[in-house]
Amino acid sequence: xxxxxxxxxxxxxxxxxxxxxxxxxxxxxxxxxxxxxxxxxxxxxxxxxxxxxxxxxxxxxxxxxxxxxxxxxxxxx
Length: 77
Ligand SMILES: [Zn+2]
Known about the structure:
The chain is mostly helical and 77 residues long. It has 4 helices and no strands.
């Protein structure tokens, strides 16, 4: 089904999804995929945890720089 996101697409959109920076149709596509894919569900859950943790850290770095650094760490973990 063309409408379905692939796991790769879900991963690439995770940051925007967690930040609620996407249209409701995109969110719906994410949710449909996440409802069926345990791997992506776990990935999004962990990113959301990390992003949530970042928000309560002192702002020593601009938000975007911190997030990128953390996302990089996360991807190599
Ligand atoms: Zn998936």
